[in-house]
Write a structure and sequence with these properties.
Blueprint lengths: L5 H13 L9 H6 L5 E7 L5 H6 L3 E8 L2 H10 L6 E5 L11 E7 L7 H11 E11 L6 H21 L22 H11 L4 E5 L3 E7 L2
Parallel strand pairs: 1-2, 1-4, 2-3, 4-5
Antiparallel strand pairs: 5-7, 6-7
């Protein structure tokens, strides 16, 4: 389904490239609101440039941050003060899941790079009792609701980019330099698989082409 004519889409893409902003960082404060004020161990899967890991470090005694991209992980280390309790590791998390249990496991715009059901199963296995999993993910548009949210997000995305950049053209943030790929699961697929692995999880479609998933371990 085409939402806009190709010429309009190209114009919008040029505008967004001129006034970029980090859609994932938009949800970081929301993620923190799902977590306790203090906890022991956190794991950030697909940590990118480390923005969320550094925020988690203000609440956690230990933060493990894992990403498969060595270049962006190196940038994350440079951006992170030595005093923060964050360890950045380059690894394929599905092949080398960090050992131990965690009070918080976060995953932002990364789970669609993994086998979804297997990833949730790993999260559940390594989550401590009364811990919380928070996922911000991407899904493939299929339903009228998906396309409606996409249409609503387009002007909101442009306006947000303009405001965040104060009307001045800007380079892409470091946190947006990682490679990504399109999601292949629909929201309904994600809900169905999540219900099997994490009964009681809370899922919502969100603006800016995202959905959220929160599960509290009993």
């Amino acid at each position: 389904m085409k939402i806009l004519p190709p010429r309009a889409l190209r114009a919008l893409e040029r505008f967004n490239a001129t006034y970029p902003w980090d859609h994932n960082a938009h949800y970081h404060r929301w993620i923190l609101r799902q977590l306790p004020r203090r906890f022991d161990r956190a794991l950030d899967v697909g940590s990118g440039s480390g923005d969320l890991a550094r925020l988690l470090a203000a609440r956690a005694a230990v933060v493990m941050a894992v990403d498969s991209d060595p270049e962006i992980s190196a940038q994350a280390r440079k951006l992170t003060p030595a005093a923060l309790p964050v360890t950045f590791t380059v690894a394929d998390v599905m092949a080398e899941f960090p050992a131990g249990s965690y009070d918080a496991i976060t995953c932002v715009a990364a789970i669609h790079h993994m086998p979804f059901t297997e990833a949730l199963t790993c999260f559940r296995r390594h989550l401590a009792p009364r811990g919380t999993v928070v996922v911000v993910g991407l899904c493939r548009a299929r339903t009228p609701v998906d396309y409606f949210l996409g249409i609503v997000a387009m002007p909101a995305n442009a306006a947000t980019g303009w405001l965040k950049n104060k009307g001045r053209p800007s380079p892409r943030p470091v946190s947006m330099t990682a490679l990504t790929r399109a999601a292949d699961m629909t929201f309904d697929d994600i809900v169905r698989e999540t219900r099997r692995v994490l009964p009681g999880a809370r899922l919502r479609r969100r603006l800016f082409w995202r959905y959220t998933l929160v599960w509290d371990h009993p």
